[in-house]
């Protein structure tokens, strides 16, 4: 690792995790529950191994084990059970199995530390309702305990992930925190009641109760994995389609991928939700799908286009829109494809619409498309240096480009430089 910011962050995280583990260790005692603890550790490893990956995040039913463990065993053993479950999980990624023996030690330590710190601080909130309970109703107290545990766990976990992304990519911490919090909220809220029920059934029926409850939990995991697999295949199909189209033109091959990266950076800087970022990324891959109807001789023509040829080129946003408009569940993607060559001042094509008629997302795609076009060699000119591209963006801000999007993009470039 050469990233000094990341090294400092991980070092501090490891120290805090060690402090949390030591501080909770002072109050633990070995008792007759040791067999139960080993059983829950095995459950933790299994549920984490069956986690479902999508993009850079993995979702598991392991939080049910976390909630059950805090109820049954307290802070120290919960930290041990969940941290080791995370460390010794085995899962498949890119046609290979990932496990502790082929994972860099600093990644394993990060995962363990993240879990330990999140559990330590959330257990403080959980235990505060035992010490300072203001109600004699046990159900109210337990509801407040678990609710506070869930909120603090997710908040601490999201903050750690946000700081990690800041250390890796200089991403906005607040935006990363909110996105991670929102993304994890549904999964954690869904798993918390299972965790409470898990603890109740274990106390009442021992291992049999656990096995009965784990069946619907694992079924839920299987259903979600099918959804993620379908979604992943869909995105892969879109990307493969655009690669096939771009392969016709050696100068624009990889263009949609480059546009998607710029679009993603801008959308994340603006604090967009994961679903909105994903929609913009898919629109980036599809924005030139209308070029499928344009002859190669026109796309690759080295000289000046005739008026007729230029009009044909200008028709590709509308052609693309007509190709994808009837596909279900695309949301605003057809709208973005249709208008990605419009201008802020209304002098673009194919419809000459102004900014207030289109929405900001169109201009994210429009700017990304223009920036990559200027950044790469084309049949009619060489790639422009960054300073020339920057001057072009500033000069045309408020006419061709949306000023807010220009400012956001320049801010991103400034951070990266």
Automatic annotation (TrEMBL):
This is HD domain-containing protein. InterPro entries: HD/PDEase_dom, HD_GYP_dom, MASE9. Residues 230-417 form the HD-GYP domain. Pfam families: HD_5 (PF13487), MASE9 (PF20972). The chain crosses the membrane at residues 6-22, 34-54, 60-84, 105-126, 146-168, 180-199, 205-224. Keywords: Membrane, Transmembrane, Transmembrane helix.
């Amino acid at each position: 690792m050469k990233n000094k910011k990341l090294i400092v962050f991980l070092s501090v995280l490891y120290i805090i995790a060690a402090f949390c583990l030591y501080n909770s260790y002072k109050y633990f005692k070995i008792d007759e529950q040791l067999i139960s603890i080993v059983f829950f550790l095995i459950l933790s490893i299994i549920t984490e191994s069956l986690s479902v990956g999508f993009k850079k995040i993995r979702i598991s039913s392991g939080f049910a084990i976390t909630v059950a463990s805090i109820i049954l065993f307290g802070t120290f053993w919960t930290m041990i059970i969940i941290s080791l479950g995370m460390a010794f999980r085995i899962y498949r990624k890119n046609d290979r199995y990932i496990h502790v023996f082929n994972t860099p030690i600093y990644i394993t330590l990060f995962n363990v530390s993240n879990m330990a710190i999140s559990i330590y601080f959330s257990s403080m909130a959980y235990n505060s309702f035992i010490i300072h309970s203001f109600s004699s109703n046990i159900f109210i107290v337990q509801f407040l305990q678990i609710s506070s545990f869930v909120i603090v766990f997710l908040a601490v976990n999201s903050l750690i992930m946000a700081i990690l992304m800041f250390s890796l990519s200089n991403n906005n911490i607040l935006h990363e925190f909110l996105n991670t919090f929102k993304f994890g909220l549904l999964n954690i809220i869904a798993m918390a009641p299972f965790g409470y029920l898990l603890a109740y059934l274990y106390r009442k029926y021992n291992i049999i109760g656990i096995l009965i409850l784990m069946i619907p939990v694992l079924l839920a995991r299987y259903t979600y994995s099918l959804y993620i697999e379908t979604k992943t295949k869909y995105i892969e199909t879109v990307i493969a389609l655009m690669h096939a189209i771009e392969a016709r033109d050696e100068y624009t091959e990889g263009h949609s991928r480059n546009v998607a990266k710029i679009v993603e950076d801008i959308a994340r800087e603006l604090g967009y939700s994961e679903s909105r970022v994903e929609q913009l990324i898919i629109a980036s891959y599809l924005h030139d799908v209308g070029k499928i109807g344009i002859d190669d001789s026109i796309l690759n023509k080295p000289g000046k286009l005739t008026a007729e040829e230029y009009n044909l080129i200008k028709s590709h946003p509308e052609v693309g829109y007509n190709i994808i408009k009837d596909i279900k569940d695309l949301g605003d993607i057809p709208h973005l494809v249709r208008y990605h060559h419009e201008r802020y001042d209304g002098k673009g094509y194919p419809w000459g619409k102004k900014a207030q008629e289109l929405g900001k997302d169109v201009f994210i795609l429009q700017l990304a498309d223009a920036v990559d076009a200027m950044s790469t060699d084309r049949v009619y000119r060489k790639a422009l240096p960054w300073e020339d591209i920057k001057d072009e963006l500033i000069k045309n801000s408020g006419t061709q480009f949306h000023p807010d999007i220009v400012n956001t993009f320049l801010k991103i470039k400034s951070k990266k430089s």
